[in-house]
Amino acid sequence: MSQRIVINSLAFSRDAGSLHGELPIASLTRVLDMLVDSTGNLSYRVEGRLGSRNRRQLVLQLDGVLSVCCQRCLEGVDYPLDVRRVLEFVADEEELTQEEIEDDSKDFLPVQEEFDVAALIEDEVILELPSAPRHESCALPNTGQETGKISPFSVLKGLTGKA
Ligand SMILES: [Zn+2]
Fold first, then answer.
1. Ligand 1 centroid – CA 141 distance (Å)
2. Distance from the CA of 9 to the center of ligand 1, in angstroms?
3. Distance separating alpha carbons of residues 87 and 4, to the nearest angstrom
């Protein structure tokens, strides 16, 4: 069940719009594969403003806790989300300077009148989640001592040779 939260990004930024609410984690369909538990909500806040060169910006904030899958024991690991992103809309004909491209403090998006905030939230969650989450300390299921074992990776290296 995907949920759409659509704003007119141009008017929203110009008028310093503000939007906040709760988004069910279960509605983040592209994220669900990475989660152990999909109950609960993320809270979001979106604010519009004008940035430098009068460009329209959105500031997105996300809060919540996601239960991601530990790559070692396959149990859930609580991952607190704390996202604050600045997105700037750029018209097609505008050129980004090298400085802007290298600026990690914000992302650039093509100007869109109809902008799906729920899809943006989903994208940002996917970017934010760790690719191989683990508990700080947990045991592998069904294995004893690891000492003295040959690492499977060193065996693989020997088999594959040159990549
Ligand atoms: Zn674990």
1. 9
2. 41
3. 19
